[in-house]
Automatic annotation (TrEMBL):
Keywords: Glycoprotein, Glycosyltransferase, Golgi apparatus, Membrane, Signal-anchor, Transferase, Transmembrane, Transmembrane helix. It comes from Callithrix jacchus. The keyword Transmembrane applies. GO terms for cellular component: Golgi membrane. Belongs to the glycosyltransferase 31 family. This is Hexosyltransferase. It holds the Pfam family Galactosyl_T. The chain crosses the membrane at residues 12-30. It is found in: Golgi apparatus membrane. One of its GO terms (biological process) is protein O-linked glycosylation via N-acetyl-galactosamine.
């Protein structure tokens, strides 16, 4: 967002008019469409039955209310905001779609579906992915499809801007899958679960899924080669395996999970959330498990919990490095395309680095074996 809205005065004026028009539009549509979270913040007109176990039922999608009985717990008041939000709303799992990709997305069988978690304002990252490793194409005759999984901004003013941005992107690229919930770190599990549910209905004929972040570099050509050796009807869940870790109990950490959320001191084995590959078989299993488990605020750990419940194991793939890259030798720079040539996925690339790397890897005359510089 920072860059996008740095516009010249004339641009700002046009934008202001645009936002104003959108506002008016929203004002009118809000009265007829299912309530959004903005409506939810007003006093509910129905009597409060907050702690009731019954989920909101169709036909009219009732807004999901905070479970205020959680706040009675003596430890609640001292928790950081994101933990409080998680506890208050974790039972809410049903959110309206704001952007839905066109049916053509999955009209043909999809070999590899790239389902990339992106924050609403990460426009530049999405653009780069569309131009580089995420480009929809056929690799060795097999269809690759791209989807960005997004929520919306917590701040209503920001939300109007990003929702309009995502609407534009959806119109242009048809690759936005957006739900009306706050796109926060502790809501990533919700995003993952809602994606799996969407996929079951709208993109069932997908052999494999790459679930990842928008700041990874994925060598999608290599991925297709690797996956061709696998049967989508069998279990596959690979990434960077993380074992023998448990909840971080220091409250300043981004990953802080208090005892109020889990008493357990161990996490099951899981794969780092930067990127992992799964088969259709495993997607079905995860969906089943997610239905019966309580949401857990850390999305990749939650996938581990789902696998464990289904009696399945995550596995390591040496080509997937979501937690820092160990450069094998002094002679290779960490940005050497020859180093990345055999990898499947590496975490933390800046948008311009993705472009450079993708270009370097696709040069027909890339020869490895001696030191090369691409910059
Ligand atoms: C609300 O919180 C209470 C206390 O933690 C819990 O027992 C109850 O099941 C929760 N209700 C819902 C709908 O999640
Ligand atoms: C998740 O999204 C819901 C709906 O927007 C919101 O009420 C809740 O606070 C969010 N949870 C967290 C942990 O941010
Ligand atoms: C999925 O696609 C394959 C290959 O074209 C086809 O044989 C199969 O019937 C399709 N399955 C479903 C459930 O659509
Ligand atoms: C490799 O190809 C690029 C353009 O595709 C060209 O500019 C460069 O000179 C070539 N390098 C070698 C060593 O052939």
């Amino acid at each position: 967002m920072r860059h996008l809205w740095h516009l010249r005065p004339s641009g700002t004026l046009i934008l202001a008019i645009g936002v104003f028009t959108l506002l008016l539009f929203l004002l009118f549509t809000l009265q007829e469409s299912p309530p959004t979270y903005e409506v939810r913040e007003q006093p509910p007109e129905t009597p409060k039955t907050l702690a009731g176990p019954t989920p909101p039922t169709p036909p009219a999608r009732a807004p999901c209310h905070a479970n205020t009985s959680v706040a009675a717990h003596p430890d609640f008041a001292g928790q950081p905001r994101q933990v409080q939000d998680f506890l208050l709303y974790k039972h809410c799992r049903d959110f309206p779609l704001l952007q839905d990709p066109p049916p053509s997305k999955c009209a043909q069988p999809v070999f590899l579906l790239l389902a990339i978690k992106s924050s609403p304002s990460n426009y530049e990252r999405r653009e780069l992915l569309r131009r580089t490793w995420g480009r929809e194409r056929k690799v060795q005759g097999l269809q690759l499809r791209l989807l960005f999984l997004v929520g919306t901004a917590s701040n209503p003013h920001e939300a109007r801007k990003v929702n309009r941005l995502l609407e534009l992107e959806a119109q242009t690229h048809g690759d936005i899958l957006q739900w009306d919930f706050h796109d926060t770190f502790f809501n990533l599990t919700l995003k993952q679960v809602l994606f799996l549910q969407w996929q079951e209905v709208r993109c069932a004929n997908t052999s494999f899924v790459l679930n990842g972040d928008d700041d990874v570099f994925a060598h999608t050509d290599n991925m297709v080669s690797y996956l061709q050796g696998h049967d989508p009807g069998h279990h596959l869940f690979v990434g960077q395996l993380i074992r023998n870790v448990g909840p971080i109990r220091v409250s300043w950490s981004k990953y802080y999970v208090p005892k109020m959320v889990t008493q357990n001191e161990r996490y099951p084995p899981y794969c780092g959330g930067g990127g992992f590959l799964l088969s259709r078989f495993t997607a079905d299993a995860l969906r089943r498990a997610a239905r019966v488990l309580d949401l857990f605020p850390i999305d990749d750990v939650f996938m581990g919990m789902c696998l464990e419940l289904e009696g399945l194991k995550p596995a390591s793939h040496s080509g997937i490095r979501t937690v820092g890259v160990h450069v094998p030798s002094q002679r290779l720079s960490s940005f050497d395309p020859c180093f990345y040539r055999d990898l499947l996925l590496v975490h933390r690339f800046l948008p311009y680095e993705m472009l450079l790397m993708w270009d370097a890897l696709n040069r027909p005359n890339l020869t490895c074996g001696k030191q090369r510089q691409i910059h």
